[in-house]
Amino acid sequence: MIHWMRNEPLEETVERLSQCxxxxxxxxxxxxxxxxxxxxxxxxxxxxxMWGAVTLMEHAGRDMxxxxxxxxxxxxxxxxxxxxxxxxxxGQVPWCAALTSRAARARRPPAFWTSPPTSV
Length: 120
What we know:
By secondary structure, this protein is an alpha/beta fold.
């Protein structure tokens, strides 16, 4: 089950998932908001595991393709901190939502997808 799509405190999500019989969850990739030891303790008290975390690439100017090296370094540091959070809590999967990134927004569909055929 995922937590990152709900606007509620992690404690509420964990309590609800535990009551519903889930065994693991995915959290926000927000290492600045979570203390790994606190999250691990919370999950342990409810017999839940952390599956992983989804990176939030559309926030805080994160962009691995940005022309400014300092923006790329900041994004890389965020990704590394997210992986550390996942590891600290015993999770295994960092998920980078590529469709929310600048690269996905910059893609253009090929012309043959957007133009009607001129002959058959």
